[in-house]
Specification:
This protein has ten helices and 13 strands. The protein is an alpha/beta fold. It is globular, with a radius of gyration of 20 Å.
Length: 315
């Protein structure tokens, strides 16, 4: 049975570990994660599938696949050394891949040239609602608008935490950490042009709201509104007529994008079923592998276009 090493004692444990175990993989963890593992009671059921290594180096040496569930800059420091390891054939990587699209592009090139199989945690493509969006886009005309309205209170704002997720320079912020999910989905759908993009926040390095309009060939105009510091919680997706907003092809109303998990264990993170889908894609055919790599490259291209077009407005 293939073994996955997990580097990252937060989401690596409560997000990736359950998904990997449910997919039938053994998981290897550094010994210093034991306390964090034991403190999460929902992980007890996976104890028999866990192996312990002395440290991160040991984990990397004995694993076929590796999860990097780390902040972007730290993940970025790991990728070059992992690319050179012949024993590691597969990587599961967090989003954003790096703190900037330029650095991310370098990693994509090195991973591809090293013939590593890799997946990036752009989870929207594995949700239950995304198929509805794709089908709706097959029945549109020039007067149609696709709109995403995503509002929530990020944990670091709710708890007033000082964390990298607040700062764009570290790969955080409303565009790089949250909006990248939408960027990846839209890139896969074929969007590649930014009409305008504006971010709002206390400083250019701490932005909490993003408004944008994107376009793509033979696609409806896409309006984005993402607010990570909102008192309201909702995730709405509509495909409707520009002339009559009440006459729509699609009207999705969720509290958050991961609400509709179809096979979720009650005490586990709501994203685990979608990460499981991500992990199961490692068994995909070669054609699927090629498509996924193109998704990652097109995501990075659109991310760079968004960043170049974005203006900051202080709040």
């Amino acid at each position: 049975m293939s073994s996955f090493g997990v580097i990252g004692s937060g989401f690596g444990l409560y997000g990736y570990l359950p998904a990997l175990c449910q997919c039938g993989y053994k998981v290897t963890l550094p010994a210093r994660y034991m306390s964090a593992f034991q403190n999460r009671k929902e992980l007890t059921r996976y104890s028999s599938k866990i192996e312990w290594g002395q440290d991160e180096e040991t984990v990397l040496t004995k694993s076929w696949g590796v999860v990097l569930a780390l902040p972007p800059k730290l993940q970025s420091s790991y990728i070059p050394q992992i690319v050179l390891r012949n024993n590691i054939s597969c990587l599961l990587l967090e989003k954003p891949l790096a703190d900037t699209p330029e650095t991310s592009a370098l990693h994509l090139d090195s991973l591809t040239k090293a013939s590593k199989m890799f997946r990036i945690n752009y989870l929207f493509r594995y949700t239950d609602w995304v198929g509805c969006v794709k089908r709706s886009l097959e029945m549109v005309d020039d007067a149609t608008i696709l709109a995403f309205d995503w509002r929530f209170m990020a944990h670091h704002y709710l708890r007033n935490l000082s964390t990298w997720k607040r700062h764009s320079s570290e790969g955080g912020g409303v565009v790089r950490f949250y909006g990248i999910h939408l960027i990846s989905l839209l890139a896969e759908l074929g969007y590649n042009h930014v009409v305008f993009s504006t971010v709002f926040g206390t400083s250019p390095d701490e932005i909490s709201r993003w408004v944008a309009i994107l376009q793509g060939s033979n696609l409806p105009e896409c309006n984005l509104y993402v607010d990570s510091r909102s008192e309201t919680q909702r995730f709405h997706v509509t495909v409707s007529s520009r002339n009559n907003q009440d006459s729509g092809h699609l009207n999705i109303r969720l509290n958050d994008p991961f609400e509709q998990a179809t096979s979720q264990v009650s005490d586990e993170d709501r994203r685990v079923p979608f990460i499981k889908n991500l992990c199961e894609s490692l068994r995909s055919k070669l054609a699927d592998e090629s498509h996924l790599q193109e998704v990652y490259f097109s995501t990075n291209r659109l991310w760079r276009v968004v960043e170049d077009a974005t203006k900051f407005v202080p709040t």
